[in-house]
Amino acid sequence: MNDIPAPGDSLESFEEAARERAEVRFLFRLYVAGSTVQSNRAIVNTRRICEGHLEGRYHLEVVDICLHPELARIEQIIAAPTLIKREPLPVRRFVGDMSRTDRLLAGLGLPEAPEVRPVTP
């Protein structure tokens, strides 16, 4: 009944937590309105950020609300483009062309990296 961890336990716990964090999968849904410049920019920027920070650990679904207005109603989308992060919790929403990389990364809890450059007008 010894509650004190053995000397190696804390390192093992730390390594296990690091492995779990590396395995966290992000689930995103990006709502766009047609094939506009802003929609295309949001898609490119979102993919660039995901590949730069979450390579192999994310799933991105792009939904055109012009083709699927029922999904926009269900999700209560009032502006497009809108990116919704479903997993991991908490759910987060981002509106715009995703060119504010610093704000997006902060909202996702990811460190900023200078190699990720947004597409801007």
TrEMBL record:
> What PANTHER family has UniProt attached to this entry?
CIRCADIAN CLOCK PROTEIN KAIB2, KAIB-LIKE PROTEIN 1
Q: Where is the signal peptide?
A: none
Q: Which CDD domains match?
A: KaiB_like (cd02978)
Q: Where is the KaiB domain?
A: 29-110
Q: Pfam families given for it?
A: KaiB
Q: What is this protein called?
A: Circadian clock KaiB family protein
- Cite the InterPro entries for this sequence: KaiB-like (IPR039022), KaiB_domain (IPR011649), Thioredoxin-like_sf (IPR036249)
